[in-house]
Fold this protein.
Amino acid sequence: MFVLGLTGSIGMGKSTTAAMFREAGVPVHDSDAAVHALYRGAAAPLVEAAFPGTLQNGEIDRARLAARVIHDAAALKRLEAIVHPLVRAGRAEFVAKARADGADLVVLDIPLLYETGCESEVDAVLLVTAPEEVQKSRIAARPGMTGAKLAAIIAKQMPDTEKRRRADIILDTSSGHAAVAQHVQDLIAAIRTGRVKSRDHA
Ligand SMILES: CC(C)(COP(=O)(O)OP(=O)(O)OC[C@H]1O[C@@H](n2cnc3c(N)ncnc32)[C@H](O)[C@@H]1O)[C@@H](O)C(=O)NCCC(=O)NCCS
Ligand SMILES: Nc1ncnc2c1ncn2[C@@H]1O[C@H](COP(=O)(O)OP(=O)(O)OP(=O)(O)O)[C@@H](O)[C@H]1O
């Protein structure tokens, strides 16, 4: 089974590209969605213990939590120490299940793939990217997003130029939905016919 990592900085088009793989029948694991689910379940009491007042009506309120961690590096580190191991375990379970089900290809959408050293979990990394102006205008359109919040998130992510240097496959999502969908189809075919090689995991 080929495990394709999908990553890219905020607003570069991970979720949109992941949806295209899903539509093609490829199982996709979404780490951001896994975090959000954990806040409605296993991680809720742990996060409330570390950040009292963030638990509201039985689940972690992400806006309240963001306000506590987004401009406080030490607090974000404490949150990541709670959340990342749980997300990683969930991903491993997802891969094991897909393997047992006989899947030939899965996609792991991991926003912080490089930042958290997850390269060894995947056979190849697909990086979605776009010019900075496109990235910024996409994110500015999101409700609740401010210039300060965006700058704080970008500062915590590895620069796109560095990700480009490391990635196995680069996909520019500013070329539009149809072109990206075609690239996704081509990539799936290339993986299935052995034309994309697994990186050495040394
Ligand atoms: C700070 C939180 C509460 C904000 O929630 P909110 O719903 O507003 O944002 P959302 O989760 O959709 O994330 C928005 C963007 O920021 C990125 N991002 C989230 N956490 C981080 C982080 N620790 N470092 C860098 N980028 C991050 C996401 O990948 C996404 O691109 C939330 O992002 C969070 O719990 N982050 C810590 C867990 C984490 O590291 N998640 C990243 C994927 S495992
Ligand atoms: N191929 C594409 N063509 C045109 N627009 C796109 C394309 N891919 C993404 N977009 C647009 O860019 C925006 C951000 O895309 P998306 O939500 O997929 O990014 P993301 O990388 O998952 O973001 P985040 O890191 O916040 O989760 C969306 O408004 C989406 O419609």
Summary: Residues 8, 10-16, 32, 111, 138, 173, 176-177, 180 surround adenosine-5'-triphosphate (ligand 2) (CB under 6 Å). The beta strands are 2-7, 28-30, 55-56, 59-60, 105-109, 124-129, 169-172.
